[in-house]
Amino acid sequence: MEEDIEGVMVIDRLSFSDPWCYNFYKSSLKDIFLIIEKGGEICGYLVACVCHDLKKAVVIRVAVHPDHRGEGFGRSLMRRCLEIIVARDIEVVELDVELVSRAAIRLYEKFGFKIENIIVFPSDYPGDEETFYVMRLRLPKPNDSISQVN
Ligand SMILES: CC(C)(COP(=O)(O)OP(=O)(O)OC[C@H]1O[C@@H](n2cnc3c(N)ncnc32)[C@H](O)[C@@H]1OP(=O)(O)O)[C@@H](O)C(=O)NCCC(=O)NCCS
């Protein structure tokens, strides 16, 4: 998986104004680190971490190559991530998303994430920090049963 980091970093640089360095990705290999490929090319990735003590997971980074957006890769990555998290008996997933990232907010809402909090940086805050939503999803237990009633 370490050999995938360079490909992930290409997408990272195209997607974020604060790209992660190599070592940041390397240390993420012990967390949930998913990539999605098409024809041998990395098209997207997702990084999440799990805090078992708090029964909570945080999606830290998700991006799809600009040439492959709108093809369902983001949805597939998020679906797989949530499957892994549910199987680990985690109850809550959180993430931060910039208010301007409309596509990401729609994606998260489709999976049932709800806005929990808004983080607004004061206008005199140094740097170019954006306003963020904190979004949260409460997950079913792995052995909760769902049955069809009709
Ligand atoms: C957010 C992102 C990962 C979505 O990936 P994607 O592969 O393009 O998304 P999908 O094709 O799987 O679409 C899934 C859903 O996301 C939403 N969505 C995707 N692109 C959208 C757009 N341009 N506008 C509005 N909603 C959009 C839709 O709800 C879509 O479901 P639908 O097709 O049933 O309407 C991608 O746009 C991206 O990499 N953005 C830049 C990085 C980023 O903002 N990451 C999130 C940081 S928190």
Number of helices: 4
Strand order of the largest sheet: 1-2-3-4-6-5
CATH C-level name: Alpha Beta
> What would CATH call the architecture?
3-Layer(aba) Sandwich
CATH topology: Aminopeptidase
Largest sheet: 6 strands, mixed
Helix content: 25-40%
Secondary-structure blueprint of this entry?
Blueprint: H1 5-15, H2 22-28, E1 32-38, E2 41-51, E3 56-64, H3 73-87, E4 92-98, H4 102-110, E5 114-119, E6 132-138
Parallel strand pairs: 3-4
Antiparallel strand pairs: 1-2, 2-3, 4-6, 5-6
The chain binds coenzyme A.
Notes on the structure:
This protein has four helices and six strands; from the N terminus they run ααβββαβαββ. It has 150 residues and is an alpha+beta fold. It has one domain (2-138): Aminopeptidase, CATH 3.40.630.30. β3, α3 (73-87) and β4 (92-98) form a beta-alpha-beta unit. The longest helix is centred in the middle third of the chain and has 15 residues, at 73-87. It is globular. Residues 15, 62-64, 69-75, 97, 101-104, 106-107, 110 line the site of coenzyme A.
